[in-house]
Design a protein that fits this description.
Length: 96
């Protein structure tokens, strides 16, 4: 199993959820509003100076879905270069 965390501008939230729906990724946890700054790009702080906001979503997937998700997210990121989508993957196992 793999844990995938996606942090993205709220502007692409609907597209991310569409990808999850099409790939039958039905189990996830979503944080509607998160703030921060990546290595490059502008901060997203929900303030007057930095008004944009991010969303974060995490899902534990079977490895068979990982490549399809990666391809879909890369396509979305390529089509929305100025928006910002970052995904992180690590090994996961159920404790119980």
């Amino acid at each position: 199993m793999k844990a995938v965390m996606i942090i993205h501008n709220k502007a692409v939230s609907e597209q991310i959820m569409y990808i999850f729906e099409k790939l039958h990724i039905n189990a996830y946890t979503k944080w509607e509003t998160v703030y921060g700054k990546g290595i490059k790009g502008e901060p997203r702080m929900g303030t007057h100076t930095w008004p944009e906001e991010n969303t974060a979503i995490i899902s534990i997937l079977e490895e068979s879905k990982l490549e399809l998700l990666k391809q879909a997210l890369a396509f979305l990121d390529d089509a929305n270069k100025d928006v910002g989508i970052r995904a992180f993957v690590w090994d996961a196992e159920y404790l119980f």
